[in-house]
Fold this sequence. Notes:
The chain contains eight helices and twelve strands. Strands 3-2-1-11-12-9 form a six-stranded mixed sheet. Strands 4-5-6-10-7-8 form a six-stranded mixed sheet, covered by helices on one side. The site of zinc ion (ZN) has 7 residues, from loops.
Amino acid sequence: MRVAIVSDIHSNLAAFEAVLGHARAGGRVDALWCLGDIVGYGPFPNECIALLRTYDCRVVAGNHDLAACGRMGTEEFNGAAAQAAEWTLAQLTPQARSYLSELPLTACESDFTFVHGSLRWPEWEYLLSSEQAQAHFELQETPYGLVGHSHLPLVCHEQPPGPPALRPAADGERVALGDERLILNPGGVGQPRDGDPRAAYALLDSDARVVTYHRVEYDIAATQQAMEAARLPRWLIDRLSEGR
Ligand code: ZN
């Protein structure tokens, strides 16, 4: 089975379409696993939800999804994120809103546990340190964990008895699924933050037991123009070109 693993689409339809096109170019995509933040920041929330739902998908909620359907307030968001969340809330169709309102915070599928942030703090924690990974592993009941939220492609090996080791995952990197427990972050589809503006995702080949990280070019200007037309905050528009 080939599974596209995506996170942090953030209403960036051009980036999401490019990622799915890349995944399909290599063969049939049997399922789509999404680690949250389908919406927020970008200009096409309804379209991204609709496209996601055309796949056999397994999805958990991110903080932006919760804010966009009123399950979470925006007090903890920065100004631009809160403004985009309010814009999204006003744009969502009743169907899209009800879809977001029913998403779970965690899910399991075969050997994988999904969560947006971390198992300790599903909707908020950025899993970026060895200590945070350790706390997550203590709650992870499957061999492999999938997280998003930081928009940074990462691989974390548990490697007991030492502390877990985290490292960035490069474009084209292949991670074998063996006996060692792992936490993987595919990076952000719709708002990369590692200095590379290309959309990020990962592809699981469950027969070969390998996850491959990918970066995909997309039409950044098309998303930026739609954001300008929607009067979304300038900082959110500019950061897409920089991948920050
Ligand atoms: Zn996000």
